[in-house]
């Protein structure tokens, strides 16, 4: 791929941001020239009203378009520049979309736990990065940094990580590392010699929190060096797959979904499925009772959600976590792919998802769709 010079895009982000890592890697792999800026950069004041929410990442194109959210940034380029990282095969496309939503929502517990519950190892590192978001002359910079860090630390419990669940969160994450490490012994990316959309989604937690922060980063390097190499590979413009020797540069042939990848999804299904089922049930009750107006925001801030929390069981243990509609917004992509293919292909998809322990996802649907209008997720008819 030619990485020739051109007009630069602006990416408002942070090096330690979970969601920014997804968009940054996409820009790198697509050889798109860009400049990163902090959300406290003087230019952000003009961008914030258009972005609707002060979340990162936010992209500003050379012609002034503003795109908020990592998935939306990727969609912007895939729809206007061509589907470079979306498999044409529906089966592989389904699996890619599944990893995308799992990366953006399904791994928040280990990402938050390993960042905020090991202060002796992580806090000095995190303080450096969070303070770097503010200009040196920013008023009360030190106190603001500490305040932001403590606020984010409290959201760890909102995601379902408590003293009663920490060991379960860690056990599931270790199993995931082991399964992913086995998969990457044979292929540089999830679906072969090229990254797919699912790689970028999965990278969000595995790079921003779990590979960069000192405590989980050391764990990943020691226990799963193949996963750490994949993290490195995802942040380089080249294929960076020399250890695979004459590796193909495309997705697997003949619609292949290797057993090693199915094993990864089996691990992920253990808490992703029960949480998603419980979340959909609660949201559907709320939707029937409240009937939000078409076009109203489908965004709940943690701690102030009108729906509250949801309880679900994993290995016989109860986890209580905040309900996030974005999970279901992402799942709609899978549903759309499935609904648009012929019956024969649907049967193949069902068989693969059943083998992964993920078959229920095809039926977990909200009674209202979620769309995007002017950089905001909204309820549709």
Q: Mean pLDDT, rounded to whole units?
A: 94
Q: What is the fold named in CATH at topology level of the domain at 9-81?
A: Glutaredoxin
CATH homology-level superfamily of the domain at 9-81? Glutaredoxin
Distinct helical segment count: 14
Q: What's the alpha carbon Rg, rounded to whole Å? A: 20 Å
Q: Label the overall shape.
A: globular
Helix proportion of residues, in percent?
40-55%
Percentage beta strand: 5-15%
- Distance separating the two termini: 42 Å
Poorly predicted residue ranges: 1-6
CATH architecture of the domain at 9-81: 3-Layer(aba) Sandwich
CATH level 1 name of the domain at 9-81: Alpha Beta
The major sheet is characterized as: 4 strands, mixed
Tell me the series of helices and strands, N- to C-terminal.
EHEHEEHHHHHHHHHHEEHHEE
Summarize the structure.
By secondary structure, this protein is of the alpha+beta class. It has 14 helices and eight strands. It has a domain of 73 residues: Glutaredoxin (3-Layer(aba) Sandwich), CATH 3.40.30.10.
Could you give the topology of this structure?
Layout: E1 9-12, H1 18-29, E2 34-37, H2 44-51, E3 58-60, E4 66-68, H3 70-81, H4 90-106, H5 108-116, H6 119-131, H7 141-158, H8 166-183, H9 197-208, H10 214-223, H11 225-234, H12 259-290, E5 309-314, E6 317-322, H13 326-340, H14 343-356, E7 370-373, E8 376-379
Parallel strand pairs: 1-2
Antiparallel strand pairs: 1-3, 3-4, 5-6, 7-8
Helix pairs in contact: 1-3, 1-9, 4-9, 4-13, 5-7, 6-7, 8-12, 10-11
